[in-house]
Design a protein that fits this description.
This protein is an alpha/beta fold and 218 residues long. The protein contains eight helices and 14 strands. Strands 2-1-3-6-7 form a five-stranded parallel sheet, sandwiched between helices. Strands 8-9-10-11 form a four-stranded antiparallel sheet, with helices on one face. The protein is elongated.
Length: 218
């Protein structure tokens, strides 16, 4: 998962980037409003509200206009109630006051990403080559043959299908299915192996070395 860290204090940014990278996130740092607006697409923004070339609240508003699903957490020293209320009203999903612990920040990141995923519009049926997924009915068929999956296997397949054809990181799967990125990654491998066996063709779910897994779309 990709995080945009908007922070003008380079020492703080370096420490946060290092801690987030160790937790499996891909981090891009932007020290200014302009850099943040020109950054690559991401899953979540950690946003300092005090920036050298503009107000972070204006940036928050601009980012929210771009995407209703983007996760935004204001990370700032502004601890006054009026600042927290303003940040939330302008589109931030959460508000963390410095200083904070990485355990707290990790929990807030996971909560915001879960809410963003659940808010995204969901298709009723997803077709991935011979695999047909009825999202509402939670049923799966391959070549019109119904396949019985466990709840976790179905949720893993759905996580992959939501980003059909793209490499989905293991941490994204952990967050979607187990609600945390701190679970044992070996658990994902075991469930993927079982899922492949039930789908009947191991090529349908590809391993992307060093990243995660991909559900073939053709």
């Amino acid at each position: 998962m990709r995080i945009l860290l908007v922070e003008d204090d380079r020492r703080v940014a370096a420490a946060l980037s290092s801690a987030l990278t160790r937790r499996g996130y891909e981090v891009e740092h932007a020290a200014t409003v302009d850099a943040a607006l020109s950054a690559a697409p991401c899953d979540l923004v950690l946003l300092d509200l005090t920036l050298p070339d503009g107000d972070g609240t204006d940036l928050c508003r601009a980012l929210r206009r771009r995407s209703a699903q983007l996760g935004i957490i204001a990370v700032t020293a502004r601890g006054e109630e009026r600042d927290r209320v303003l940040g939330l009203r302008l589109g931030a999903d959460d508000y963390v006051v410095k200083p904070f612990s990485m355990v707290e920040l990790q929990a807030r990141i996971e909560a915001v990403l879960r809410r963003a995923a659940h808010a995204a519009p969901e298709r009723d049926v997803i077709q991935a080559g011979p695999v047909r997924i009825d999202v509402a009915g939670r049923t799966v068929s391959v070549h019109d043959r119904e396949v019985t999956l466990t709840r976790k296997e179905f949720d893993i397949l759905l996580s992959l299908a939501r980003q059909l054809g793209a490499a989905v990181p293991r941490d994204r799967i952990l967050l979607d299915v187990w609600g945390t990125t701190w679970a044992d990654r070996h658990t994902v491998e075991v469930h993927i192996g079982s899922l492949r066996g039930k789908l009947g063709d191991s090529r349908l779910v590809e391993t992307v070395r060093g990243v995660g897994y991909r559900l073939r779309g053709e």
